[in-house]
């Protein structure tokens, strides 16, 4: 089976490509390199034992995309390619809508024209906004996300639902909670551009001295220690869920299918707990200061991942500390490269 992985050199994409290769899928990557580097492809090959076919272009270039579909018989797609910085999306909403939605639609047009099914969409728990109750299951009411980035994820889901019904297609919408960590080989991980926005890359850079201290955005939330709570899921566990979701789509007899899964651990951790877990796991100090709340942040979000366990036979079982250990190994690897 040949799978197109858009954004396959990115953070979650690269880990998923490795899992696909290890499960004997052929992989074709299209990635515009806007948030990746070429050495990631070499490292995928080192881990996966095979070099995926790679095309460096932007999915808005329809003619190039068509040529890929002409050249290869594609059986399915895992679509990661998207801009993903929440803050930036507020400054450049049109760029986010254009890139994230047109890229998605262009791939779907090819799927429709060539009668291919099996499409997996990289969505986010941001589609729930601040949910009324925790943990969050798949039937939780969707609320309009605050950021334009989040809106592109919610709109992407709506596009896919309409597409699946109108053209009798199989789609799987995977709503990630907070992915963290790196590959156990330390050859793959997150490559934050500039100053990281996300917690774990910032913690990691602070521990290594690149940043002076972590700012904890608020300790007056209604949570046990006052800092905000999220569900941090190890990226390799997350990558494995994609393979399971894909296999389920492929084995499904019915023509039309819309699967939705929350991918998280089911456990919430506060910002302070993450900092402490990082310090314990890696025997390093993370200096921090408490600051005002960050605009747009929600208090708490963690998953009820039971549906994924029931239907996919998948469970995130890597501990927070273990995930944070891999992050630190990746940081050390990056420093040897610079
Ligand atoms: N945080 C800090 N200091 C930092 C960075 C983050 O205290 O320097 C806190 C945040 O305030 C938040 C928690 O750490 O409470 C996690 O923040 P992240 O930015 O790592 O993650 P978010 O939960 O804000 O955002 C993530 C994804 C988005 C997605 C969103 C959905 O990054 O893609 O979840 O809620 F849209």
Automatic annotation (TrEMBL):
It catalyses: UDP-alpha-D-glucose = UDP-alpha-D-galactose. It is an enzyme of class 5 (isomerase). Residues 4-326 form the NAD(P)-binding domain. Pathway: Carbohydrate metabolism; galactose metabolism. NCBIfam families: galE. InterPro entries: NAD(P)-bd_dom, NAD(P)-bd_dom_sf, UDP_G4E. The keyword NAD applies. GO terms for molecular function: UDP-glucose 4-epimerase activity. Belongs to the NAD(P)-dependent epimerase/dehydratase family. Its cofactor is NAD(+). Keywords: Carbohydrate metabolism, Isomerase, NAD. The keyword Isomerase applies. Its EC number is 5.1.3.2. This is UDP-glucose 4-epimerase. It comes from the Bacteria. GO terms for biological process: galactose metabolic process. GO terms for cellular component: cytosol. Homodimer.
């Amino acid at each position: 089976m040949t799978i197109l992985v858009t954004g396959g050199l990115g953070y979650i994409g690269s880990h998923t490509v490795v899992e696909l290769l290890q499960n004997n899928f052929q992989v074709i990557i299209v990635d515009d390199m806007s948030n990746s580097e070429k050495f990631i492809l070499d490292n995928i090959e080192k881990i996966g034992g095979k070099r995926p076919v790679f095309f460096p272009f932007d999915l808005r270039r329809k003619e190039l995309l068509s040529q890929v579909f002409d050249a290869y018989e594609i059986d399915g797609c895992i679509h990661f390619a998207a801009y993903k910085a929440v803050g930036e999306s507020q400054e450049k909403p049109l760029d986010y809508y254009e890139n994230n939605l047109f890229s998605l639609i262009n791939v779907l047009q090819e799927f429709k024209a060539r009668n291919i099914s099996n499409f997996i969409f990289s969505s986010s728990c941001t589609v729930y906004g601040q949910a009324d109750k925790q943990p969050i299951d798949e039937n939780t009411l969707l609320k309009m996300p605050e950021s334009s980035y989040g809106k592109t994820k919610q709109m992407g889901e709506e596009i896919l639902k309409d597409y699946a019904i109108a053209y009798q297609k199989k789609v799987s919408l995977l709503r990630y909670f907070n992915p963290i960590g790196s590959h156990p080989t330390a050859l793959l991980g997150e490559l934050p551009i500039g100053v990281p926005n996300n917690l774990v890359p910032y913690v990691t850079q602070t521990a290594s001295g690149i940043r002076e201290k972590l700012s904890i955005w608020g300790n007056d939330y209604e949570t046990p220690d006052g800092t905000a709570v999220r569900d941090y899921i190890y990226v390799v566990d997350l990558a494995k869920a994609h393979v399971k979701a894909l296999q389920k789509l492929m084995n499904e007899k019915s023509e039309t299918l819309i699967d939705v899964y929350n991918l998280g651990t089911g456990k919430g951790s506060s910002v302070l707990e993450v900092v402490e877990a990082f310090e314990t796991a890696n025997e390093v100090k993370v200096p921090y200061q408490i600051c005002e709340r960050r605009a747009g942040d929600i208090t708490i979000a963690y998953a009820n991942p039971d549906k994924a366990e029931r239907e996919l036979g998948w469970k995130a079982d890597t501990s927070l500390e273990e995930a944070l250990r891999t992050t630190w190994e990746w940081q050390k690897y990056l420093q040897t490269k610079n």
